[in-house]
Design a protein that fits this description.
The protein has 6 helices and no strands. With about 150 residues, the chain is mainly α. The chain folds into 2 domains: about 50 residues, no CATH class; about 90 residues, no CATH class.
Length: about 150
């Protein structure tokens, strides 16, 4: 759950800035400069989940979600290298632009393959919820889509 508390508020904040979540989620605290709305929302959601769900399910959800994110990021690195070779890169990946991302996607995908059926069902359920939010809210409000 601590992993969620660290990264998720910033992800929700960035999504709100891009128009994928309501503007209230893009609010920044006037004194501390942090995304306080998404931090409080994520904290409450984690508190409820931590209080209601068994720890093994929470661990499995966190692990499968992180592995899935690693697969997407690895594939995204390769896609950007192909489609947008003109973007300035601040670092080089050892082994070239494709060896490490391919290995990362394969190993993360392999670990996902070992997950239980219930864990995979939960992953797809969360993805379905995210897709519903995207298609009913994010698609209409996306700044990238309008730009």
């Amino acid at each position: 759950m601590i992993v969620m508390l660290l990264g998720q508020p910033r992800i929700f904040f960035s999504m709100a800035v891009d128009g994928l979540l309501p503007p209230v989620a893009a609010k920044v605290h006037p004194r501390f400069g942090t995304p306080h709305v998404t931090t409080i929302t994520t904290g409450l959601a984690c508190a409820v989940a931590g209080g209601l769900l068994p720890i093994d399910i929470l661990g499995e959800l966190t692990s499968i979600g992180t592995l899935f994110a690693f697969v997407l990021v690895s594939l995204g690195v390769m896609i950007l290298r192909i489609k947008r070779p003109d973007i300035p890169r601040s670092f080089k990946v050892p082994g070239g632009a494709f060896v490490i991302p391919i290995l990362g996607a394969l190993f993360s995908g392999g670990l996902m393959y070992t997950a239980t059926t219930h864990t995979l069902i939960r992953l797809f359920a969360w993805m379905a919820i995210g897709l519903v939010i995207y298609f009913f809210y994010g698609r209409k409000h996306s700044k990238l889509r309008r730009g």
